[in-house]
Amino acid sequence: MFTHHIIYQAETTPTQWETADDRVMGGVSVANMTPSNRLDLACSCLSGRVSLENRGGFLQMKWSFDPPVNGNDFKGVYLHVLGNNESYNLHIRTNQLWLPWQSFRASFMTESKWQFVYLPFSQFENYKTFSTIDPEHIKKIAIVAIGRVFEADVCIHEMGFYS
Fold first, then answer.
1. Which among 1, 16, 82, 108 is placed 20 to 30 Å from 155, CA to CA?
2. Global pTM?
């Protein structure tokens, strides 16, 4: 049994989600983020077509923390998620990272029904950095559709840390 520390819950938390996509680097993918209601639960949904044209290939919705969150008291991040049976990434940025393309990444599969996904910090892989994740100063968490051509449709009802 996990103890949950909720960061975002669609019914009660003012949304801080922001979108970003590969157009910032010349790509053609377009991220859409909308509040929605899926299978009787309020949620925030990321959708759009991921394209690899012009060296692109990602859509994301990101949640920023100011001040950073100390994740040392937790085992990892959890999501209450629904999607289109595709694989997505969860990216974490900490104060260890300087460049915008650096992150710590873990993948998860979605289903067409609501499910809880638990991603322990030990499962996150470093991307374009030699650092390993230190969750003491988490600055940003992002849900990311990345790396292949597909239609993204992923919804988050709740997100947080678990111990």
1. 1
2. 0.95
